[in-house]
Amino acid sequence: MSTIPLVIDTDTAQDDCVALLVGLLDPAADLKAITMVAGNVGFERQVANAFLTLSVAGRLGEVPVHLGCRRPLTREWVSAENVHGDGVGGLTMDASGLEPDPKPGVDALIDLAAANPGELTIVCIGPLTNIAMAAIKDPRFVANVKSLYIMGGSNNARGNITAAAEYNFYVDPEAAKTVFEAGFDIVVVPWAPLTLNEAVFSREQIAEIGALDTPLARFFVRIVSTTLDFDESVGIAGSTHPDSLTASVLLHPELVRKSSRMSVQIETSSELTRGYAAMSWGVHGLDPNATVVEAVDGAAFYAQLSAMLAIATVPSRSFSN
Ligand code: BDR
Ligand code: CA
């Protein structure tokens, strides 16, 4: 079976962990590296969460973790700890001896793309700071990358951190603007309506996963717990899985039921609509720069994730609360 070479650029908390599991465990994936970017929770916490996820997958030490940008291009970091807590439901693991790869994340992205010209896909599930920095630093980066699968924005629908904006684009709108104007081949998995329609797991589904009683299933139930409470408090009937959907759509394009070429432009000058993604569907005379996923087979996505979480991995290190 041929595999898809990819890097996951992540602000590791909650569904980012699930997306890492997809990259680590799906037979269609050849995960070359994990690069960290400032986002959901404190940077060191994100790194610890990535190591914990690698361990639960039984793959600690097999995939390098590179540290990328610790803050957005020009703005202060905005945390989502009110949504995610520590991002792993309080789970801990002895991390002694674990070190990130010494190569900085931006250089790792540049070098991996250069070593695999036209072949490497980057799954971007945090703010786009590292990707923008790589494009600024190396003029060949855009051409060397095969495609970016970006979780971010909303498709003419509500945001989540503000009425207008989705978190990843809100945190670093200048980076998002840079990336969408750079000429990459881009696929976008938006927050609304797609994630809210097709990638929300109910308490019943989460209990079904818990009943699998594997280390992965126990890990999953714990790491989604804080976000589940938050999501319910804002009227969403379950835990949200946009990041793992993004990785899954890359590896299993048959999940996509509808997508459209669109012009995606990012707002950077207004405070009110900071990070808003204007997704123009073709009637406004704008050149398309991205493919926006509009509908997926949500049941098939859930079935794929549950099957993955049923795998009886042997964690590299024990974890506890
Ligand atoms: C995005 O922000 C984070 O909270 C999630 O991991 C996802 O990448 C959703 O707005
Ligand atoms: Ca994320």
Task: Describe this structure as you would to a colleague.
The protein is α/β, with parallel strands linked by helices. It has one domain (4-312): Ribonucleoside hydrolase-like (Inosine-uridine Nucleoside N-ribohydrolase, Chain A), CATH 3.90.245.10. 38% of the residues lie in helices and 20% in strands. The protein contains 14 helices and 13 strands. It has helices spanning 15-25, 43-56, 81-84, 105-115, 129-137, 141-144, 167-171, 173-180, 191-198, 203-210, 215-223, 225-233, 242-251, 298-309; strands at residues 4-10, 29-36, 65-67, 92-93, 120-124, 145-151, 186-189, 200-201, 239-240, 256-266, 277-280, 290-296, 319-320. The strands form three sheets. The chain has a nine-stranded mixed β-sheet with strand order 3-2-1-5-6-7-12-10-11, with helices on both faces. Strands 4-13 form a two-stranded antiparallel ribbon. Strands 8-9 form a two-stranded antiparallel sheet. Helix 1 (15-25) links the parallel strand 1 (4-10) and strand 2 (29-36). The radius of gyration is 18 Å and the shape is globular. Residues 11, 16, 39-40, 125-126, 243 line the site of calcium ion (CA).
Count of helix runs: 14
- Report the β-strand fraction as a percent range: 15-25%
The Rg value, from CA coordinates, equals 18 Å
Domains, number: 1
Q: Helicity range of the residues?
A: 25-40%
CATH class: Alpha Beta
**Low-pLDDT runs:** none
Q: Give the number of DSSP strands.
A: 13
